[in-house]
Amino acid sequence: MNRTFDSNSWGPSVQAHRTDIKIGGRSVVQEFSRRKDAFYLDDKGLPTCQKLCPPDLVLPTLATRLITVATNPPEHLECRIAAHVPIAAAITDIAFPGTSLGGARLVDITLVDGAGHRRTIHAEAPPQIRSGSPILLALKPVTGQSPTTLGGPGIGSVPDRELASPLVGSSEGLAGGV
């Protein structure tokens, strides 16, 4: 199953190729194999290490890894990511390069970044995502709004929501599907 990418969220140069995602013809899976830290990808697929960028910089795509994945309840995932999402950025979509979409379901996914900021998006999640898996975030700049009011269709911040179960280092709870 190949995924399609909305050009309003991802830009015109993003394409799926089996389980890989290509931006400007550059393989995201290959780029992840060469990099340890989070990185941005511009419209042409050129990578830039996030650590070298100003904290408020918003480029179209942020590539990072999942640190932890937890389900609670089954229609909700909470994922800690190994990057800081700029405070003035809205997450418009997500993708999981290197992961098949077979059996994927639409779920609420709360992403907790390195600074502890929480953002929730309703998106497709494959059943086999695990800690250490790559994740791509489509970002759009948001100006004049506080972090608790970031949003758009299907997107929002969940600053006060507490999940009943703690995050764990593995995704064993995902075996029955997402």
Task: Describe this protein with a few key phrases.
mainly beta; Lyase, Ornithine Decarboxylase, Chain A, domain 1; nine-stranded mixed sheet; three-stranded antiparallel sheet; 2 helices; 12 strands; 38% strand; disordered C terminus
Question: What is this entry, summarized?
Answer:
The chain is mostly beta strands and 178 residues long.
Description:
The chain is mainly β. The chain has one domain (7-144): Lyase, Ornithine Decarboxylase, Chain A, domain 1 (Beta Barrel). It contains two helices and twelve strands. Strands 4, 5, 6, 7, 8, 9, 10, 11 and 12 form a nine-stranded mixed sheet that branches. Mean pLDDT is 79; it is low at 146-178.
Layout of strands and helices, then pairs:
Layout: H1 7-10, E1 14-17, E2 20-23, E3 26-27, H2 28-34, E4 39-41, E5 47-49, E6 61-71, E7 76-81, E8 89-95, E9 105-112, E10 118-125, E11 134-141, E12 155-157
Parallel strand pairs: 7-9
Antiparallel strand pairs: 1-2, 2-3, 4-5, 4-6, 6-7, 6-11, 8-11, 9-10, 10-12
